[in-house]
Write a structure and sequence with these properties.
With about 325 residues, this protein is mainly α. The protein is built from twelve helices and two strands; from the N terminus they run H-H-H-H-H-H-E-H-H-E-H-H-H-H. Keywords: Calcium, Disulfide bond, Heme, Hydrogen peroxide, Iron, Metal-binding, Oxidoreductase, Peroxidase, Secreted, Signal.
Length: about 325
């Protein structure tokens, strides 16, 4: 599962939020949400890792220029797009978005945005993985800019205090931040993102990592391009097990483990670890809020015909 979940993120909630609404396409493209669901279901039936991929895509899109599908744009000879920046280089799932867009365009041309497709596809994948079922307000428009220079996503060794500031700049509270990082319940990270924590690199055990996990990861990372599940137990299920693991010092990435150790976040970790229902409700609420970050609505942006390229200007 090729998800290196470094998920980061806003400031004042724009007034544009009011323009997103449930059932936005009820009259203009009645089958839009069912088409998304069908494509995601088909992919999920053969690839359970698509949930992690879509969660990462959704996060990384929203926290650069807002949830405007700018991450989907391919580079041109003149501009290197967001998807080719270092933090985004391993994002995947673009082909699924293409499949959804093609199916919807055949039914409702130039009606449903790529930004809405990302949000809806993520919702459906989360539900298929045993996570909460939630409703997504739609009406987003697609952005007109995608530049790798705009991408500034913190890495896995960032302190909790700095990470909190990144989230706060997008209007996300500390509790919501801890909730959203629970998406790591279905994520993986390649060894390069946590090898500095391993005894094979440090020369001695990391006191914040369970020795048995250290030994397991040291062995795993002997293979080239190896990756580890961020939730070592229920790796394909969206649940609260991630929090239970980091309370046992079984967090793979440093930032994950620090959530359980830092005083500003540890209480939320404990609460989610002990109450799966609370996590599910909180996750649904937080991801809906995240999906509204700096959205384009009304006459802003465009509705792309192809999610990978901007529409041609007349």
């Amino acid at each position: 599962m090729k998800l290196i979940s470094i998920i980061l993120f806003f400031f004042v909630l724009p007034l544009a939020f009011a323009d997103l609404q449930l059932g936005f396409y009820a009259s203009s493209c009645r089958k839009a949400e069912s088409i998304v669901q069908q494509v995601v279901q088909k992919r999920f039936s053969r690839d359970k890792t698509i949930t992690a991929a879509l969660l990462r895509m959704h996060f990384h899109d929203c926290f650069v220029r807002g949830c405007d599908a700018s991450l989907l744009i391919d580079s041109t000879k003149n501009t290197t797009s967001e998807k080719q920046s270092g933090a985004n280089a391993s994002v995947r799932g673009y082909d699924l978005i293409d499949d959804v867009k093609e199916a919807i365009e055949a039914t409702c041309p130039s009606t449903v945005s790529c930004a809405d497709i990302i949000a809806l596809a993520t919702r459906d994948a989360v539900a298929l993985s045993g996570g909460p079922k939630y409703s997504v307000p739609t009406g987003r428009r697609d952005g007109l800019v995608s530049n790798s220079k705009d991408v500034n996503l913190p890495g896995p060794t960032i302190p909790v205090t700095i990470l909190t500031q990144f989230f706060a700049a997008k209007g996300i509270t500390v509790e919501e931040m801890v909730t959203l990082l629970g998406a790591h319940t279905v994520g993986v990270a390649h060894c390069g993102f946590f090898s500095s924590r391993l005894s094979s690199t440090r020369g001695k055990p990391d006191p914040t990592m369970d020795p048995a996990l250290d030994a397991k990861l040291v062995e795993l990372c002997k293979a080239s391009n190896a990756a580890a599940f961020l939730d070592q137990n229920t790796s394909f299920v969206v649940d609260n097990e991630f929090y239970k693991q980091i309370l046992l010092k079984r967090g793979v990435m440093q930032i994950d483990q620090q959530l359980a150790l830092d005083k500003s976040t540890s209480t939320f970790v404990s609460n989610f670890a002990s109450n799966g229902d609370k996590f599910g409700k909180s996750f649904a609420s937080a991801i809906i809020k995240m999906g509204k970050v700096e959205v384009l609505v009304g006459n802003q942006g465009e509705i792309r015909k192809n999610c990978r390229v901007f529409n041609k200007r007349s």
